[in-house]
Amino acid sequence: MENQKEPVIIPPIEQIREELAREEARYGFRKTVRNIAVALLVAAAIATLIATRMLGLVRVNGNSMNPTLAEDEIVIIRQTKEFEKGDIIGFYYGGRILLKRVIACEGDVVEIDGGGAVSVNGEEIDEPYLKEKNLGKCDVEFPYEVPEEMTFVLGDNRTISIDSRIKSIGCVDRDQIVGKAIFRAWPAGRMEILR
Question: What's residue 1's pLDDT?
Answer without folding.
Answer: 53
